[in-house]
Amino acid sequence: MKKAIALTSILVLTLLKSFGQTSDFEEGLKSFDAKDYKKAITLLKPYADKGNCTAQFVMGYTYQYGLAVEKNDALALHWLAKSAEQKQPAAMGPLAALLFSNALKDRKVIVQAYLWAMLAAEYSVVQKHTSTRYVIKGHLKEDEIQAGDQLLEKYKLNWKNKENCN
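^ thats the sequence. predicted structure below, dont judge the formating
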């Protein structure tokens, strides 16, 4: 009987903790939407650290634009890439733009910028109606376009049966 009570207590505490975490996550998203970026970062960073793609997007976005944190392209790239790799459409477009701006200094990342712009257009209704992929493609050499298209096909194949991360 004592084991049953102990197990029930553990289950109840686990459920209460889970509900608290969910409300922190939801509160973090509400804070982000309300442009209370400092609160959003505080609440969502633990989720980003644990691999939540939406929290990772928020972290990347705030670092990309310096919202309640110092603008930091390296941290923005880190978080946006982690999120985008999990098929988070919201992260793909900003990642492509950031990579493209870096490609002006370091040509090696331009194919990655093209890849993420193409994936953003593939998986995001909003990004489908932007010209980012065409602008980036206009700066590519033919061999870079081919390399980007090959990467694009690999991603699409790997993601064929995977839901978008939300």
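DSSP finds nine helices and no strands in the chain.
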